Amino acid sequence: MFTNYYWIMPIAKYVEKYGLNDFETSMHLIEEITKRNTGEYAIRPFIEANPEKTMEQMLEWSKNSNKHIRRLASESGRPRLPWATKLNLFIKDPAPLLPILNNLKDDKSKYVQKSVANCINDILKDNKEIGIQLIESWKVENMSKERTWIIKHALRNLIKKGEI
User: Fold this and answer.
1) Which ranges of the chain have pLDDT less than 50?
2) Domain boundary assignment for the chain
3) Residue 141's pLDDT is what?
4) Which CATH number fits domain 7-160: 3.40.50.1950, 1.10.10.350, 3.40.50.300, 1.25.40.290?
5) CB-based burial of residue 32 (10 Å sphere; 0-12 exposed, 13-18 middle, 19+ buried)?
6) pLDDT reported for residue 155
7) Are 48 and 54 in contact (CB under 8 A)?
């Protein structure tokens, strides 16, 4: 997927460390980096410093035609993204993530679906009621196969524990 683009990782790290003072340029760079590698770590300081503006950007990304950008919208908001700083604001209240996840609940890309499911799985760890409410709101007649897969994958840890 991202073959031969490892050279871009230091650029993402630079944006993560020094880009907070230029939001627009940094968001553009994160988007372009994501098309070639990944920007989910670089955006986390922006979420912490300016959550409302960053979430607006992520909501827009959730509608993008590029699957890597759509995945960025869900993956970068994961409260407990592995190898990243926890996003305590979303551990406390994941509500800002829900519109993004709603936009992506029927995404055709397995790459995006897995990210959405993992984000919900993270939410369920700290806010089980909110996560279950989101999933229940998605359960309608004629559910897409994509949504069915996302729900099953999101619930995997609760199923293993015998909690549902």
Assistant:
1) 1-2
2) 7-160
3) 83
4) 1.25.40.290
5) middle
6) 98
7) no
Rg (CA), the chain: 16
Helix/strand/coil (H, E, C) string of 45-63?
HHHHHCHHHHHHHHHHHCC
Closest by Cα among 116, 52, 135 to 78 = 116
Residue 3: the pLDDT is 56
- Residue 64: partners with Cβ closer than 8 Å, 6 or more residues away: 70, 73
d(CA 50, CA 55): 9
Nearest to 95, CA basis, from 77, 69, 118: 77
Tokens 């994160």, located at residue = 30
User: Could you tell me if 91 and 77 are in contact, meaning their C-beta atoms sit under 8 angstroms apart?
Assistant: no
pTM equals: 0.93
| Terminal CA-CA length for the chain | 35
Which letter does DSSP use for residue 161 in this model?
T
Between the CA atoms of 81, 121, 65 and 11, what dihedral angle is there, to the nearest 10 degrees? 0
φ/ψ bin of 144: left (φ > 0), alpha (ψ from -120 to 50), beta (otherwise): beta
